[in-house]
Amino acid sequence: MSGFWSRARHHTGFLIGATLVGVVTLAALVSVFWTPHPYDDLRMALKLKPPDGSWLLGTDHRGRDVLSRIMVGAQTSITVGLIAVSIGMTVGVCLGAWAAARRGWLDELVSRFNDLLFAFPAVLMAILITSVFGASATNAILAIGIFNIPVFARVTRGAALTMWGRDFVRAASALGLGPLTITLRHVLPNVASILLVQATIQFATAILAEAGLSYLGLGAQPPVPSWGRMLYDAQTYLYDAPGLAIWPGLAIAITVLGLNMLGDGLRDLFDPRLRLMRVG
Amino acid sequence: MLDFLLRRLSAALVTLVLASVVVFAVLEILPGDPALVMLGTEARPDTLAALRAKLGFDRPAPERYVSWIAGLLTFDLGNSHAYGTPVSKLILDRLVVTLPLAAMALSFSMCVAIPLGVFAASRRGRAADWLVMGFGQLGISIPNFWFGILLALVFAVALKLFPAGGFPGWGTDFAASLHALILPALSLSLPEIAILSRVTRSSMLDTLREDYVRTARAKGVAERDVLMRHALRNALIPIVTIAGLLAGFLVAGAIIVETVFYLPGVGKLVFDSINNRDLIVIKNVVLLLTILVLLVNLIVDMIYVMLDPRPKVQA
Amino acid sequence: MSEFTRRRLGGLVGGAGALALMGAAPRAHAQAPARAKDGVVVIGMSLEPPVLDPNLNAASAVREITYQNIYESLTRIDRNGKIIPGLAESWTISEDGQQFVFKLRAGVKYHDGEPCEAADVKFTLDRLSAPDATAPGKSLYTSIKSVDVVDATTVRVNLKSPDAFFLFNVGIGDAAIMGRKSAASNGTKPIGTGPFMFKERKEGDSVLLVKWPGYRDPGSIKLNTLLFKFIKDPAAQLNALKAGDVDTFPGFQSPEQVNQIKADPRFAVVVGSTQGETILATNNAKKPMSDLKVRQAIAHAINREDLIAGENGFALPIGSHFPPHDPAYVDLTKTYPFDIAKAKKLLAEAGHPNGFEASLKLPPVGYAQRSGEIIVSQLGKLGIKLSITQLQWPQWLQEVFKDKNYDFTIVAHTEANDLDRYARDGYYWGYDSKAFKENWAAVVKEVDPAKRMELLKKAQKIIADDAVNGFLYQLGKVGVWNKNLIGMWENSPTPSIDMSGVYWKV
Fold it and tell me: Which residues pair with C197 in a beta bridge?
């Protein structure tokens, strides 16, 4: 691992990515304990103030501090992204590893299931899911999580199949070890790095998806701030306060850019030949 | 070849049947009674029951599923509950906005991304390469709806060159309609440009390494001709494949960009019909979009096989 | 760019007739005057109507487009809410108030050439009140016992009991008199007796009406073409107005943006009254809201000034469920004045010194979203933690209104004369008061206007004292129109965009 870190220190993309992600995470953590102003304090008299010394990014249409809301919005984005990717990863890795170990009809079934999820326009399905179960952060997580399953299932299956072809796995199989043991002991540890890289990229995609859903009003509900919703609200004041439409978008772009660079950096550091899936 | 196609086709059909079951099931548990929506707060229980019977909601679910599929097979999508007009007309009216939008975005992305990728590949490792790669990284990180808002801010609010939203309709004013689609198409194409330029670059780099390119260079063929005649033509195969795959995502991405620019496309139809609980419209639109994505994937598969006769194993 | 401009201007000059104008040069500023010359008005609406049959669909957008433009009713509600003759030029009421005889105007025809006769009136009223009727407004017409056709222009309606609201109810859009031959297809191809006839509909986009030459008084109608354009998003509404695509938004839904419109010299912004009492509807059947003290505490914690500021000032405070512009209105806003200390004390007495947790389920309308966040912050000061759920209308209707699975919601009750809801069993507030029910039964039966007014005042007081719901404000009607467009309704006594008296000043 020491080799990893010494190489990492010289990888510019990785360093920039790690810094951006670090800043956003820090902002989210700090906002749990402290924000410049209370993020949900409605003060109609202060609405749409331009930025100044005490309101660094100005106030929104309800007189709330935009900077504080962006900081708390980071919490929302990170939480939704993290949980959604974890769900997708857990289910997807299990399915993929299982399909690779068993092959046959099960493999076929998992592939069909993947095709189905890929063929469904994800936004449409997310809209339907939130219509059925109500718009909330939890259901946004669920919708995004479901569409992460096939990504992880495919990547895991592909990588695991390669592993099953390797001599040491064949040897373990010949020794009479069961497929579960082999998967846990030999296959998964060897595909862990590609999964980590894929998870970082998916995290970025999940944050974009969350922003899109909450822009459509299907994500976290007010008064909890979310970047997407802030952008939607800002569109009403495009003529009065154009700044409102800039900051939340910038926050999304910085976070996603950081995660993408981090993911690409990790791939370079682990193994530049890894094949990733990019699904929007 | 035929065998491969048949296998892909049957797989697509299975997916489609599964999709129809899922959509139908989701709509079964969708809360909110369509009859209640039509009759509102003053509706009496007996009135509601009568209307539900009139709409056929009192029939058992399997029966309704079968009659829906049977209708689909004969191209009869039924009438919208909310408007009373044929669903096929509603969908067609919206497709003439969404499909041109997606096509425009796709051609924008090809026109920008391919030259960009070729350029970056020809300057590999130099500043221009880094710039293009950096742009690519940025392009997939910016939400396209935010890019749309920024475009509206600059070109509509500040410069007043384009409308900030809305769509006059092809029949009433063709030029203005085309004009209204430019900003949405631009914002829709941003991530596509980012992805396609990266694919072009790496595909070009791969072909530039091939023997015949090296031979051409060794023979003293001009660098420009090496790039255009020899490398690009072969590099196009994966580029077209990816572009095709992106077409499916364009349709989905159009839904959100339509919201940003208030375009009366398929996305708006989905939202409106969910809000009206116009179930018959929702299920047909969702299935139609699924068919579209499957079709594009199938065509891409076919192009792939035609261009490269070696049998491909799908990962 | 210039290419586009030129082509669009070309379309404007060359485009003869309304249809060509509609689409031509949507964004050219020179457009509104050109429309004025041709008698074209583009009317923006937030909500799109489903089928265009107000007998059968509850959406108020259906009435807004069709009432007085396409269809007419027996009586007519004028711009101030007064009942005036409609298709019936006169009527007589029997001594006991249970028999109405309407005399119809002679020679009135439908757009398809069929005469409008007494049989059509009977057909329509049966369509609304018959046992198997599927009309959303059926409960308004339950007092009808039978309808007799006396002759071609005379109709007699027999009531089961006196109904003080009957003449109003047969004057609104719900009771649009439809031709018995054309009614079945009126949802998609409406045919009425009004001055404008249906020409074309683009679902999700617009409805086009044109002047009907066969109207009984064609000279009184100044406009040639009405294009109702549906623009839901507030930001898009502003864009459309600024770009000159739309001449008027009779009900502009986004008070936050009014300042941006007022700055534009082309438009007039007129604030009028509506029938929309906006309330913090409270589930009285559920604990702890079933406790009067809890409801009183909430009433004391509501600061109407802030809520009205959230509506940019376009609202009037109310202390009960009654519109301030009605002659029978009493100001009850001081019944439980804003007083946090008192609210806390009452809440403690009720056994909730630290407040409680509850749900606030909001429908997808601007005022509910705006006031919802403010109410959460105001009740939060009592320790009442409200969690917001945004619902789509169908879910709101099902979950809140029908299944009564909610604690609080915010909604504007926009029907006229809707105080009767407090007397209903099983209504979603779960309010059950013997005193109110007795009083309301007396209101309905009372035909003497002065006595009825006293009873109405008493009714307002009972529900104010009981703090049934949080009474927030009377929604204002923010009308935006081109300054040269004359005759638009300022108020909204019933859902209607009556264009029959509107003209362009040239």
Answer: C210
Q: How far apart are CA A10 and CA B70, in angstroms?
A: 63
Strands C357-362 vs C385-390: parallel, antiparallel or unpaired: parallel
Number of domains in chain B: 1
First-to-last alpha carbon distance for chain A, in angstroms, is 32
> Rounded to an integer, what distance in angstroms lies between the CA atom of residue B197 and that of residue B153?
26
Q: How far apart are CA C40 and CA B215, in angstroms?
A: 71
Taking an 8 Å cut-off on Cβ atoms, the answer to whether B149 and A245 are in contact is yes
Q: With an 8 Å Cβ cutoff, are C390 and A217 in contact?
A: yes
CA dist C192 and C212 (Å) reads: 10
Beta bridge partners of C210: C197, C225
Task: Determine, yes or no, domain membership for B205.
Answer: yes
ipTM: 0.86
CB C275 within 8 A of CB C416: yes
> Å from B157 to nearest chain C CA?
9
pLDDT bin (cut points 50, 70, 90) of residue C492 is: confident
Q: Which pLDDT does position C485 carry in this prediction?
A: 94
Please indicate, yes or no, if residue B219 is contained in any of the structural domains.
yes
Q: Which DSSP letter does residue A126 get?
A: H
pLDDT score of C446: 84
Q: Give me the torsion for CA of C18, C20, C22, C27, rounded to 10°.
A: -140
Measure Cα distances from C447 to A134, C99, C140, C161, C453 in Å.
Answer: 47, 13, 17, 12, 10
Q: Residue C185 gets which letter from DSSP? A: G
What is the rounded distance in angstroms from the CA atom of residue B19 to the CA atom of residue B22?
A: 5
Kindly state whether residue B34 falls inside one of the protein's structural domains: no
Residues 6+ apart with CB under 8 A from C448: none
Residue C19 confidence (pLDDT): 31
| CA–CA separation, A88 and A94 (whole Å) | 10
Given strand C154-159, what is the order of strands in its sheet?
C88-93, C99-104, C154-159, C144-151
Whether residue B264 is contained in a domain is answered as yes
Q: Collapse the DSSP code of C309 into the 3-class scheme (helix H, G, I; strand E, B; otherwise coil) and give the result.
A: helix
Q: What count of CB pairs under 8 Å joins A to C?
A: 49
pLDDT of residue A276: 59
| Beta strand ranges found along C11-105 (DSSP E) | 40-45, 75-77, 83-85, 88-93, 99-104
C-alpha span between B68 and B55 (Å, rounded): 13
Report residue B268's pLDDT band, with 50, 70 and 90 as the boundaries.
confident
Does residue B311 carry a pLDDT above 50?
Answer: no
B40, B54, B163 ranked by CB distance to C27: nearest: B163
Contact indicator for A126, A213 with CB cutoff of 8 Å:
yes
In sequence order, the 6+-apart residues with CB closer than 8 A to the CB of C441 are: C423
| Best CA proximity match to C430, nearest among C466, C387, C459 | C466
Round to whole Å and give the CA distance between C35 and C260. Answer: 24
C234 with A239: Cβ contact below 8 A: no
Angstroms from B115 CA to nearest CA on chain C: 25
* CB contact at 8 A, A71 and A39: yes
- Provide the CB-side half-sphere exposure for C379 (13 A, CA): 26
Q: Give CA A249 to chain center in angstroms.
A: 16
Q: Which pTM does this prediction carry? A: 0.81
Take residue C38 and report the two structure tokens written for it: 């041709």
Provide the shortest C-alpha distance from residue C281 to chain B (in Å). Answer: 14
The 10 Å Cβ neighbour count of residue C101 is 16
Distance of CA C160 to the CA centre of its chain: 28
Q: How many Å separate Cα C394 from the centre of its chain?
A: 18
* Cis peptide upstream of residue A225 (ω within 30 degrees of 0): no
Quick one: which H or E segment has residue C459?
Answer: helix C449-465
- The CATH number given to whatever domain includes residue B281 is 1.10.3720.10
Expressed as residue numbers, the domain containing B170 is 87-314
Alpha helices in A134-271 (DSSP H): 137-165, 167-174, 179-182, 188-215, 227-235, 247-270
